[in-house]
Design a protein that fits this description.
Elements (H helix, E strand, L loop, with lengths): L23 H22 L4 H5 L1 H10 L6 E4 L6 H9 L34 H13 L11 E6 L6 H13 L3 E7 L10 H11 L3 H12 L4 H18 L2 H6 L3 E7 L3 H14 L3 E7 L7 H4 L28 H15 L3 E5 L3 H4 L1 H7 L4 E3 L4 H13 L3 E7 H4 L3 H9 L6 E5 L16 H6 L5 E4 L3 H13 L5 E4 L23 E4 L4 E6 L3 H12 L6 E4 L2 E3 L3 H10 L2 E9 L3 H11 L8 E7 L9 H8 L3 H12 L1 H7 L1
Helix pairs in contact: 1-3, 1-4, 3-11, 5-6, 8-9, 13-15, 13-20, 16-18, 21-25
Amino acid sequence: MSPISGTPLLDTVSSPADLKRFSDAQLVQLADELRRDTIAAVSKTGGHLGAGLGVVELTVALHAIFEAPRDKIIWDVSHQCYPHKILTGRREQMGTLRQEAGLSGFTKRSESPYDPFGAAHSSTSISAALGFAVARDLGGDCDTGHGDAIAVIGDGAMSAGMAYEAMNNAGHLKKRLIVILNDNEMSIAPPTGALSSYLTQLYAGAPYQDLKDAAKGAVSFLPEPFREGAKRAKDMLKGLAIGGTLFEALGFSYVGPVDGHDLHQLLPLLRTVKDRADGPILIHAITKKGKGYAPAEDAADRGHARARFDVVTGEQSKAPSNAPSYTKVFAQALIAEAADDQRICAVTAAMPDGTGLDLFAERYPSRTFDVGIAEQHGVTFCAGLAAGGLKPFCTMYSTFLQRGYDQVVHDVAIQRLPVRFAIDRAGLVGADGATHAGSYDIGYLANLPGFVVMAAADEAELKHMVATAVAHDDGPIAFRYPRGEGQGVEMPERGDVLEIGKGRMIQEGKDVAILSFGTRLGEVKVASEALSAKGITPTIADARFAKPLDRELILNLAATHDALITIEEGAVGGFGSHVAQLLAEEAVFDHGLKFRSMVLPDIFIDQASPAAMYDVARLNAEHIEAKVLEVMGEASVGKRA
């Protein structure tokens, strides 16, 4: 496929209203142009390609039939929203996608009135759409008015319990609500679970009509007393053969399955639904992730996430790595530990590639569990595994572990079960922005009794923390590490088991001590080099543990220095707050210690490069240097100079 050249219809579209003047045949052409334009745009910026390509026809059909923004089109997760953005007045901005001050990679309310509900986590669309439907019927005040509420949710997102909670409520309320199940047999990873098998039956089995006729004929030959039992058997057969049973039991009218790439099916169906729907209805559309672009269709993940790429070959432009990624170091360390301990197993929630568990699964498939987009279940499943005598590693991104927090508290912490939490994507993550930042796990885990919370300062420390987690059987333990490459440090063959609650000294200095928790240690070292040119040599320590704290180390630093600065890649209420609590309880502040805590600011930081995001957070080397100078005071700095 060559780069985009001619898009005569798309060039005339400035808003969805422009689609109303096209014939159905022209809408088919528009979809082809939109697909090529999406590929061309993402090739320049990188981003989530496959999901958008799978819903091009559906996007065109929705905007041609409905009247956004009055009608609320809510994209679940919204990886698939790039074609939607192109049709809703943002085509010229697509070159800024996922970049600083540019378009978000997800729907975002503050970005456009055509994005009625922001998303980046899954399985929220039906709940939100139902909220819009009720607000409509109760006279809610909405700037864009009220019309239909339409949720577009993938089969992967349908594996999460929240989707069924919403459907159950919607079926009870009986509000007019349209749910489109975008069934591409794949979310991010290949689908898992009984629901996937159920959906597959809907279009892989024999036609329902044939089965129904056969059953009806068989019943007529039976004596009267047996016919009622045969009727129940026929209903059961119907349930296996036709898709409406599950969804209709939840109170939805069911239509499908339909070909989600055939506008000649989609357009008349959506017109009929718009004209006649009087309650909740589910349209089951079969699509193909990566549709229409061979390099995406042929990829294992169907082009889910892509760096910049060549449109003709699909080859991605990835910078060469100078050090192994933290994710790969974790995976390799866990594989090595699992070779010596058959009780080690690993659980992820639809992110085997992102967490490195795809590598673990290649070596230990029977000990690897992908539970689908179901973090709540994943956490409690791990609790059961631990109670059953295994050593489960609950491996999730920080931002996704939030979804299972109630289970972390009730099912793991209260029962003191030795679940090992491997928390990937800690800190600020770059192009995915605020929705994917790992900002809160230090705070939300370190406040739980009996929890051990660690943060790796570099990739070697991560190896040590994997070994430490394996050896720790006295309650839950967590370790966090960021996205991206390590520091390039020398790596041990195997990790050492760390003493719980003990940090390490990095550099002896005087006057001011910097206590780092996590990978800001690299920036602390850079800041120290700059400070040395000013005659200042700070003491540097790596805390390693936020819970339990190294009391001896912290109190010694406080007793032997005029000032103590903590730094972490997390929000207020985390490591620094625990240190401050310790110092307050030990009456250290009564004797004049200067204390500062460098944390993420009390804002949601928009997408940019990680370095730029940490600039906003004021947690890079120059900010650490400035904090040291500030706390020591200009007068004392002048004396040293």
